Amino acid sequence: MEVSALVALTLILGALVILVALALSQRKEEIREETEQAAEFAAEGSVVKGAASKKQKQEKQRSRKDKASQHSFSHQLLASSLKGHSGNVTCLDFSSNGKYLASCSDDRTVRIWSTKDFLDREHKCLRANVELDHATLVRFSPDSRAFITWLANGDAIRIFKMTKKDDGSLSFKAAADDFPQKHKAPILNIGIAETGKFIMSASTDTSIHVWDLKGEVLASINTNQITNSYAAISPCGRFVASCGFTPDVKVWEVCFGKGGEFKEVARAFDLKGHSAGVHAFAFSNDSHRMVTVSKDGTWKLWNTDVEYKKQQDPYLLKTVPCASSEGSRVALSPDGRVVAISDGSNLAMYNAATGELEEEMHGVHSEEINDLRFDINGRFLVCSGDKAIRVFHNAPGYRAAIRDMQDMLKKAQNEAMKQRLQQQIKEAQSALDTVLAAPVD
Question: Which residues form a coiled coil (predicted)?
């Protein structure tokens, strides 16, 4: 009995040993297969990784190639292209003292360019960072020591002060608090009156707010134009104007008392004459002229130097056919001699007095032009539409000035006046010849 039990136990143990041996053998085979499979996966991964890195390398090379072949543009009147923003530029503004050009971009910076560097090969700029947001609009203060921005995400105005360091460079400091949120629709434009008395903001619905410099709303205007397409403060600082879906431009005077206290916003006058909605408008530097561009395919020049309180209406000086589209911008040179109009990525410059088309630039930017303005001296026209800022010589302005001075010379009777005009004509002609003789990049 004991012997048979021992034999049975031995058989069981033997069977267990065999089972263990078989299990180990099978596991070794599984491990070998797993190892081989892992090696195969590793090899495949290496191939995939190699292919991916090769693809990434190719894409990187293509990106460099694309970067190298970014939108290029050349024209005889192109003075320079200001490059520094890593995102698209959305707004431009010249300081009242003529020294600076401000630009803002979705790269979260505002850059300040020196206008005296426009004709240099290198264009240095100073950068103000917009913390936790980016600016879509920028406007200088009248004293050129501060600027305001519109915050894309904050939907509010933020003020930045500019202070000079000991080395002569500028530093920027944002105000502690932004203006309160008041607009319910996307913003169109902001501005500071040259008088320094108020700030304006306008949105795409029919709202315009007039603010004091501390962020308190002084008055709100309903334009009753169904939608606004543009709004701005006149250079004289008296008026706020708007245009939109309706075919007229409406102008209000922002009135203050003798002690500087705000009184009211009063309707001043309208510009009536277009047969369709108005895309945009612009003032001359003295606010005595306005230019409008409309969906009806024309631009109009107006004399706005009128006594509207005596019911005197602005009068139309000229109507000229032109190409325009939704989003078109218009600029009037400070002296009122040149009209510039954008149509998509194209730009046209007209003699304001004759209506003659003098210059056309096609494909100025890779996207449509979103801002357009002359510097305060009328020497340059600048525009934005992608990451670069194009700076053009105002050749039509030189030609118009020369023609005007030649007409004055014919009528001049005083010898000293004749000599002065002859000298000015000579200088203007020399400047124009220099511009036209410059090599095209």
Answer: 402-438
DSSP state string for 194-224: TTSS-EEEEESSSEEEEE-TTS-EEEEEE--
d(CA 405, CA 428): 10
Task: Let me know: does 353 contact 369? Beta carbons within 8 Å.
Answer: no
pTM of the model: 0.82
- Identify the helix (H) or strand (E) that includes residue 431: helix 415-437
3-state secondary structure 13-50: HHHHHHHHHHHHHHHHHHHHHHHHHHHHHHHHHHHHHH
Report percent pLDDT > 70 for the chain.
84
Q: Is the pLDDT of residue 63 over 50?
A: no
- Taking the alpha carbons at both ends of the chain, their separation in whole angstroms is 112
> What's the whole-number average pLDDT of the chain?
87
CATH number, domain containing residue 186: 2.130.10.10
Residue type, 274: H
The answer to whether residues 322 and 342 belong to one domain is yes
Q: How far is CA 317 from the centre of its chain?
A: 30
Distance (Å, whole) CA 214 – CA 420? 48
pLDDT at 41 over 50: no
Overall domain count for the chain: 2
**Token pair of 55 as six digits:** 């693809």
**How many Å apart are CA 330 and CA 325, to the nearest integer?**
11
* Residue 336 C-alpha from the chain's centroid: 23
Query: pLDDT at residue 201 above 70?
Result: yes
CA-based R_g, the chain, Å: 34
Mean pLDDT, residues 293-310 taken together: 95
Which structural domain, as residue segments, surrounds residue 217? Answer: 83-392
Domain contains 245: yes
